Amino acid sequence: MAPQLMDKATAEPTAERGGARGGAARLGTALLRSLRWAAPALLGYLVVRAIGIAVLLDWHVVYKQVTVESGRSGLYSLAKLWDAIWYQKIAQHGYAGTPATPGPIAPYQPYAFFPVYPMMVRVFWWVLPLPIYYAALVAAWVSSLAAAWGIFAVADKLYGRRTGVIAAVLWGVTPYAVVESMAYSELPFCALAAWTMYAAITRRWVLAGVLSTLAGLTRPTGAAVAAAVGIGAAWVLLSQWWQERRGTLRAEDRIAWWRLVLGAGIAPLGFVGFIAWVGYVKGSATGYFDVQKAWDSHFDFGKSTWESFHHMVTTQGGVWLPDPMVAATLLVSVVLLVVSILQRQPLVLIVFSAVTLVLALGDAAYFNSRARFLLPAFGLLLPVAAGLARSKTRGLAATVLTSAALCSAVYGGYVVFVYPNSP
Q: How many angstroms separate the CA atoms of 76 and 344, rounded?
């Protein structure tokens, strides 16, 4: 008996190690297969963003006197403009070590910025032999690739590979795609939001909840991701209960109720936890919202948006080009949301697009930030991508995407290096 027991004892760890290695190998194979399938989308996205960056650098040569430091390169300017500086200071010194700066309403404080992107910047800074501002840019660009991959994955699942490729490239040529070339937190947030939607659509609700938590630690609009996961999971749970009562629920379609509840339950923990932590640090339950007042950022149910529209229509003076561009983006987004609903996109994706749009329309922050707030709402692009994919006109998709890439690049340079405010 002793030799048999010893053989079993020594064999089991070996089998476990083999199983672990086999699991890792299968995961690696699956990731490689997925990457190959998404390669055309990622290559197309890289091409259009390379065009955008090349045009941005040309703009910098002409208008470098208005950048952060006229003696520095265009990439340095992209890495250091506006909010990017805050993320890098937090990555270097932490929240407590980053001092507030004077503002017209109240002091600007680092507690307005969520922690995931600064943590990424710090990791890239540790790993790469680069200054922190270039590490921040690399972290953002890597995140943008992950976002394009996630957008492709969702569109491929719902509409097919061709639509997925077009959707990923289309996301890279929107009017405010210039943000995808900057050291901003929108990029990791877009990546987490896209993969959260993919996890939910493929019925991985616990994973969706985990990714939603991370999204909520990246930007305050993580509330839209959490709402989508929570409402989507509740709808599936209710649908399963109804089908079970009628005896129409197939065994292979059943999702364990605890997975749905757990996914929905953990989805909002990221942004709720960060807001609670800021409240604790500031000694007030409204601490985070008090910090946001410095930027005049609060939800006013569309009052300031309406006033901005009214001003553009009635003013006797001129307006900056981004004003009508943002207005058009908001109006087109409303139309695309209606089309998305009519095309019966998955509920989780519709809720995410709708809540993101509501937050963009209802926020009191300065008007031209609204288009940037809509950047994660990639679901609004899917009807356009699907239409281009179905078109019988030869070369239409390539022509539209190429033209959009050039227009987006030129406009992006104007927004970054000529327009006086942040995009």
A: 44
d(CA 300, CA 244): 43
Q: Which residue has the tokens 């327009």?
A: 419
Which of 368, 422, 416, 423 lies closest to 67, judged by CA?
A: 416
Instruction: Please say whether the beta carbons of 340 and 382 come within 8 A.
Output: yes
The residue count of the chain comes to: 423
Q: How many CB atoms lie within 10 A of CB 18?
A: 10
Please, which pLDDT band fits residue 378 given cuts at 50, 70 and 90? Answer: very high
CA dist 5 and 84 (Å) reads 61
Q: Which residue has the tokens 């070996």?
A: 14
Indicate the SS3 state at residue 363.
Answer: strand
CA 177/CA 377 separation, integer angstroms: 13
Would you place residue 72 in the very low, low, confident or very high pLDDT band (cuts 50, 70, 90)? Answer: low
Three-state SS letters, 240-298: HHHHHHHCCCCHHHCCCHHHHHHHHHHCCHHHHHHHHHHHHHHCCCCHHHHHHHHHCCC
Residue 133, H or E segment = helix 132-159
- Mean pLDDT for 412-417 is 85
| Rounded distance between C-alpha atoms, residue 351 and residue 345, angstroms | 10
pLDDT of residue 83: 86
Q: Is residue 308 part of a domain?
A: no
Instruction: Give the separation between CA 262 and CA 72, rounded to whole angstroms.
Output: 49
Instruction: Taking the CA atoms of 193, 199, 205 and 211 in sequence, report the sign of the dihedral they define.
Output: negative
**Does the global pTM surpass 0.70?**
yes
Residue 148 lies in a domain: yes
φ/ψ of 268, rounded to 5, equals -90, 5
pLDDT of residue 61: 66
Does the residue 24 lie in any domain?
no
Task: Count up the domains in the chain and report the number.
Answer: 1
Domain of 231 in residue numbering reads as: 38-303+323-417
Q: pLDDT of 114-129, one tens digit each?
A: 999 999 999 999 999 9
Q: Is residue 58 part of a domain?
A: yes
